């Protein structure tokens, strides 16, 4: 909060009373001195003192066990409950050593849920407890105070806490609360703390808008709308892809922009047409990133199992996003549809992983190839591994140094209704790494050719869905099974079409959701300059013949023929 110097403190408190004019002048000097003392660290604008309606952001608070919160127990981020007590709270608590837990503690959205329950039930106990929690937080976490938890004024907790305090202020009229709202507004308006083009920045804008409306401060409201409009143009490209490199965040931003548009209207401001259009464009990205099982493909920092709701199906079954994605399926609204994704594009940023050239694959209504996914935001060796190339279905170059943040080019694309072929390339290991991908639908088959220049070798990695277990490894073939279901991986020498023997099968832990893991069979190809990998769902014994530079694979859906070089997609 704003620090001021009281005229009744310090040595001046023992001097004779001065005339009113001199007292006012002295007070003004003291205020200017206090401002100058803080000015080295930040500029302090006047805090607004007006009053307007409390606009509560729709869908802003998580579902919590409000009866448990009344008893002093909270549970965040899928972790076990923690006893906070019903009196003063220790705001330095971090019992799970979890960044997500500490953020949620200071975001106070759980307090906002008590306000929502009070509005629903009329039970004053919920409101009183919410006010006590908020006042305890404000008293013990002054902005810039010594010993305050670093999470207290981190940019995202501030953004999430602001709307909760606004909703509380609709029912609690207290000077401490209005002062805290003003301080939150000042922090949120500070350009040095703003995350432009980031989902945190959007939450900052929503908070600033609601605080500006509550305090009757029009400049904050207008600033919030200008910033979120400019940020949307940065974060969401013309095709609707979010630059944070994780479809899960595309869904999050879509939802938060929906809340933002409602809030802008509720504040009596005009909704910018460009902002509404960018939000609508996200629906294509989210829809194409949704697998036939209704879950978002867990690319980047996106846990498996997230189900988008209310996102309409699109017209195209194959979509290439310039931001670095290929998403394709055989049909919409059909759980048995085949589906795959491929990654390329700009180097890793924000919530992306080092997953370029990586792919996922669904066929015959089941997941076949998966990636390590997203486990948590905790800075652990396992979390770092889930973002590494080795956690994805990619070719790696043993002995070479991986260059983080390297971009990958989509060299060519050939798209037909039943066959698609893509060629990608980069130099992430200091040598040209090329991957060609051919996918056949109907007669389900994925063929992938990986190559590096002479003098280098690669090993391709293939992470299979945890439901599949390797039951046979021989003569360049790995057969995986789930009950009666079979999937076969075959690897060939591209030059001759002969089997490439020497596969290794490891069992690795992949993330199947937030803080959840499962054991997955991972196949590593033998070291070679080039490897042709065939993934054939639905059979443990696909017939394969090679002649005249072509390979024919007999799949359960019929024979498929193509060049060993995958250089064209025709039959």
TrEMBL record:
Query: What InterPro entries does the record tag this protein with?
Result: Chondroitin_lyas, Hepar_II_III_C, Hepar_II_III_N
Q: Indicate where this protein resides in the cell.
A: Periplasm
Going by the UniProt record, its keywords in alphabetical order are: Lyase, Periplasm, Signal
Annotated Heparinase II/III-like C-terminal domain ranges read: 349-521
Pfam families given in the database record:
Hepar_II_III_C, Hepar_II_III_N
Q: Where is the Heparin-sulfate lyase N-terminal domain?
A: 87-267
Q: What is its main location?
A: periplasm
Keyword Cytoplasm assigned: no
Coiled-coil spans in chain: none
Kindly provide the name given to this protein in its UniProt entry. Answer: Heparin-sulfate lyase N-terminal domain-containing protein
Q: Which organism is it from?
A: Planomonospora alba
């Amino acid at each position: 909060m704003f620090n001021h110097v009281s005229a009744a403190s310090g040595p001046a408190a023992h001097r004779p009373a001065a005339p009113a004019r001199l007292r006012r002048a002295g007070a003004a000097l003291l205020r200017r001195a206090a401002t100058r003392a803080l000015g080295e660290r930040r500029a302090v604008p006047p805090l607004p003192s007006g009053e307007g309606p409390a606009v509560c952001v729709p869908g802003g608070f998580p579902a919590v066990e409000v009866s448990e919160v009344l008893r002093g127990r909270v549970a965040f981020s899928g972790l076990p409950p923690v006893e906070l007590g019903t009196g003063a709270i220790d705001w330095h608590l971090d019992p799970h050593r979890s960044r997500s837990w500490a953020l949620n503690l200071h975001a106070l959205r759980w307090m906002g849920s008590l306000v929502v329950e009070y509005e629903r039930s009329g039970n004053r106990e919920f409101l009183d407890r919410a006010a006590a929690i908020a006042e305890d937080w404000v008293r013990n976490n002054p902005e810039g105070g010594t010993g305050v938890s670093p999470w207290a004024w981190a940019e995202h907790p501030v953004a999430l806490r602001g709307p909760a305090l606004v909703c509380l202020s609709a029912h609690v009229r207290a000077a401490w609360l209005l002062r805290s709202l003003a301080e939150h507004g000042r922090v949120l308006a500070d350009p040095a703390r703003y995350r432009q083009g980031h989902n945190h920045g959007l939450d900052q804008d929503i908070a600033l808008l609601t605080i500006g409306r509550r305090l009757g401060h029009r400049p904050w409201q207008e600033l919030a709308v200008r910033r979120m409009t400019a940020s949307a143009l940065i974060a969401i490209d013309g095709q609707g892809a979010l630059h944070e490199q994780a479809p899960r965040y595309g869904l999050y931003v879509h939802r938060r922009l929906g809340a933002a548009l409602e809030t802008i209207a509720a504040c009596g401001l005009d909704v910018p047409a460009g902002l509404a259009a960018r939000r609508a464009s996200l629906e294509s990205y989210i829809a194409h990133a949704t697998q036939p099982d209704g879950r978002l493909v867990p690319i980047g920092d996106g846990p498996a199992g997230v189900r988008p709701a209310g996102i309409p199906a699109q017209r195209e079954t194959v979509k290439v996003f310039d931001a670095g994605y290929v998403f394709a399926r055989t049909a919409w609204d059909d759980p048995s549809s085949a589906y795959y994704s491929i990654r390329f594009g700009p180097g890793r940023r924000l919530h992306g992983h080092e997953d370029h050239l990586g792919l996922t694959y669904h066929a015959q209504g089941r997941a076949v190839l998966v990636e390590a996914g997203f486990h948590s935001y905790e800075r652990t060796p396992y979390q770092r591994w889930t973002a590494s190339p080795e956690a994805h279905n990619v070719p790696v170059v043993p002995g070479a140094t991986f260059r983080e943040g390297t971009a990958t080019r989509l060299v060519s694309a050939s798209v037909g209704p039943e066959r698609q072929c893509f060629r990608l390339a980069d130099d992430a290991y200091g040598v040209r790494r090329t991957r060609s991908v051919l996918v056949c639908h109907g007669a389900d088959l994925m063929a992938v050719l990986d190559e590096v220049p002479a003098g280098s070798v690669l090993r391709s990695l293939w992470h299979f869905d945890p439901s599949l277990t390797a039951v046979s490894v021989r003569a360049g073939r790995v057969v995986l099974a789930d009950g009666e279901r079979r999937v076969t991986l075959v690897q060939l020498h591209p030059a001759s079409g002969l089997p490439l023997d020497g596969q290794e099968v490891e069992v690795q832990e992949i993330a199947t959701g937030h803080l959840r893991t499962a054991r997955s069979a991972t196949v590593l190809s033998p070291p070679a300059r080039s490897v042709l990998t065939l993934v054939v769902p639905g059979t443990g014994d696909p017939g394969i013949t090679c002649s005249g530079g072509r390979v024919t694979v007999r799949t359960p859906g019929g024979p498929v023929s193509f060049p060993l070089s995958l250089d064209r997609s025709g039959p």
